[in-house]
Amino acid sequence: MDYLKSVVPSQLVSERGSNLVIINPGSANVRIGLAKQDTPFNVPHCIARHTTITGKPNQMICTQVTTTSQQQVDRERAFNTTASLLKIPYLDESSSFGSRKTARIDGYNQPSTNTKKDTAFPWTNVFEDENVARAAPDVTDSGESKRKYRNMIFGEEAMRISPKEPYTIHRPIRRGHFNVSPQYSAQQVCEDLVAIWDWVLLDKLEIAHSERNKYSAVLVVPGTFDSREIKELLTIVLRDLCFSSAVVHQEGLSTIFGNGLSTACIVNMGAQTSTVVCIEDGVSLPNTEKILPFGGDDICRCLLWIQRHYQNWPQLRTDVLAKPIDMLMLNRLKDSYCEIREGEVERAATVYSYEDGMPAVAHKTNLTSLNVPPMGLFYPNLLVPELFPQPPRTWFQDHENMLEETWNMDFGGGGGGGNMGLPVWDSFAVSPLNPKKEEKIGLAEAITSSILSAGRIDLQRKLFSSIQLVGGVGLTKGLVSAVEERVLHAIPPTEAIDTVEVLPSRMDPTFVSWKGGAILGILDFGREAWIHRNEWMENGIRVGSAKKYRDSYYIQAQAFCFINS
Questions:
Q1: Which segments of the protein form a coiled coil according to its record (predicted)?
Q2: SS3 assignment, position 348
Q3: 261-293+439-505, what's its fold?
Q4: What distance in Å separates the CA atoms of residue 247 and residue 220, rounded to the nearest whole number?
C-alpha cells in the first residue's frame, strides 16, 4: 500500500504495462498493443491466403447486398425525411442539382488542402522478397518468373490485393459475430484469427513465440459477442498464442475507464455494428444493452448510392464487396468529407478506379449531399445492410457453456429452408442470461430506450447528461450536437428530463475502449479473475464432459463488471 501511495502513474503504467497485451477485436479492425503504449496498432481484421485453384479466386466475403423494391422505397423516403431536416432538396428535385454534372468535370474550383485525401492506394506486391525467394526452391511459374507468391497477407495489404491475383480474402468477424457460414467453417474462422493476431504480435509488437509465456493478455470484447465466441477467443489467446494468462472485459465497461468515468451511457459506433449500454458505478446494466446492425461501412455504401443517384460518381466499376480496396477509398472519403449540418454540403474530391492489376486512375468530381449518409445513424432505412448465409446449426450447440448454466436453445423448425438471406442470428433463440437481439431502430431511439430502462429517475438524469460517443464513427463532424438534439426530442414528454449532454472524449474515440482495457489490466493487482494457461487447458471446457471451469463465475462477472477493491 505504501508503494501505491507514492508511485507516479507513469511509472506504474511503465512497470505493469510492459508485459500486458491488450486485444480489442472488431468486425473491420483489431486493435492490439502493449498497455504502456498511448495508442494501439489498428489493423484491418482480414487475411488473404494464396490459393492454387484455377480461375477467378473466390473472395470468400460470404456476403451479398440485395436491395428489394420495398427497401428502395423506404430508402428514398428516409432520404426525403432527412433532406427536410437538413434543408436540402428532396431526392427527386433538381432545382439546385442541375449544375452538378458540369461541376464534376471541372472539380478544381475547390482544391483540397490535404494531399492525403487525394492519394491513391497502391496494389499490394503479392510476391516474396527476392532474398526470400532465392532461399526457397519452390517457384510458381518457372517459365515466366522465379518469384514466389506470399503464402499469407494481412491487414490493409490484404485489402489492396488485385482481384486477379490467386488469393482468397477472409474476414473472420462480421457484424459483431464470428463469420461462420457453410463456406467458412468455425475452425477456419479461429485459424484465421490466430494467424492475424500472431502476425500483429510478431510484426508490430515484435513478441516472439518463445517470449509469449512472459506476457498476459486482456481481451476487450464487443458487447455483441456471445458466450461461445468469448470462450473460443480465450482458447486462441491461451492455447494458440501461448499467453501465460488472460482476462475478459466487456467493451462498454472498458470505455468508461478509458475516459476516467464511473457512470455513463456508452454509445459505441463501429464499422458494422453499434451498441448502447449504461454503466453505473463501474457496473454494466444488462437490461440497458441495445445492439444496432449498422455502422461506418453502411455509411460508406450510402455515400456511394447517393453519388450514383445524382450521377456525380464517374463511370467506375466500384464494388466494395468484390474489391476491398474500393471500401478503403470510400472510408477515406467518408472520414474526410462527411459531416452533419444544415444546408447543402458539397466538396471537390478525387476518386479512383481500380481495375484488375492496372494502376489507379484519378477522376475529379464534386461529391454532394455529404451530410445525408451519417444521418443514416438516426434513419436506418437509409442504410441497406449486407446479408449473410445461414451458419451451420452445430455452431450454436454449445452444451459445454463457459457460464454456470447451459443455454436452453430451441432450434425447432426442422426442414431445410432455414434463414437464407437474413442476418445470421435472427432465426435462432438466444440465451436468457445474455440476450443478443438486434433492434431495427435509430440511434436516438436506442439511446433513449436504453437510459429509460435504467429505472430510477435520478440515474436517468445523470445518464442523459453523461453520454459517451466512441468508435470510429464518433469522429464524424457535427455528430455530437445531432445526438444531443435528437435524443432530447426522442424523450417522451411525460418524462421529467430536459437536459441531454454528450461528454467530450479524452482521446481518439476509436481507441477509448482499448485504453480502458489497459487501465483495467494495470490496476487489477489481485488478478483473482485471471485465467492461467495451464488451468484453462486442463480444467477448462471439455467436450462430452459436464465439468465446468472452476472459476467460470469470475469469467461471467469479469465480462460485465470490474470490482475495485
A1: none
A2: strand
A3: Nucleotidyltransferase; domain 5 (3.30.420)
A4: 9
pLDDT band at 387 (very low <50, low <70, confident <90, very high): low
Q: Alpha-carbon distance 8 to 13, whole Å?
A: 9
Confidence grade of residue 531 (pLDDT, cut at 50, 70, 90): very high
Q: Look-up: residue for cell 511459374?
A: 141
Between 327 and 57, where is the model more confident? 327
φ/ψ (deg, to 5) at 217:
-125, 140
Per the CB < 8 A criterion, the answer to whether 306 and 372 are in contact is: yes
The pLDDT, as a whole number, for residue 415 is: 38
Query: Would you tell me which CATH number, out of the four given (1.10.443.10, 3.10.450.50, 3.30.420.40, 3.30.470.20), belongs to the domain 1-44+192-260+510-564?
Result: 3.30.420.40
- Spans of all domains in the chain: 1-44+192-260+510-564, 261-293+439-505
- pLDDT of 26 reads 93
Exposure of 88 by Cβ count < 10 A (0-12 exposed, 13-18 middle, 19+ buried)? Answer: buried
561's grid cell? 463488471
Q: Per-residue pLDDT tens for 117-153?
A: 578 999 999 998 765 545 555 544 444 456 899 999 9
**Residue 231 CB partners (closer than 8 Å, separation 6+):** 398, 401, 402, 541
Are the C-beta atoms of residues 100 and 310 closer than 8 Å to each other? Answer: yes
Give, as one character, the DSSP assignment of residue 404: S
In the structure grid, which three cell numbers stand for residue 186, read together? 468455425
- Bridge-based pairing state of the strands 347-353 and 283-292: unpaired
The dihedral of CA 444, 447, 453, 454: what is its sign? negative
How confident is residue 66, by pLDDT bands cut at 50, 70 and 90? low
Please measure the distance between the N-terminal and C-terminal CA atoms of the chain and give it in whole angstroms: 12
Distances (CA, A) of 497 to 27, 279, 481: 35, 19, 18
What are 353's three cell numbers?
Answer: 478506379
CA dist 170 and 190 (Å) reads: 11
User: According to the model, what pLDDT value does residue 147 have?
Assistant: 81
Residue 342, pLDDT score: 94
Mean pLDDT of the 385-391 span: 64
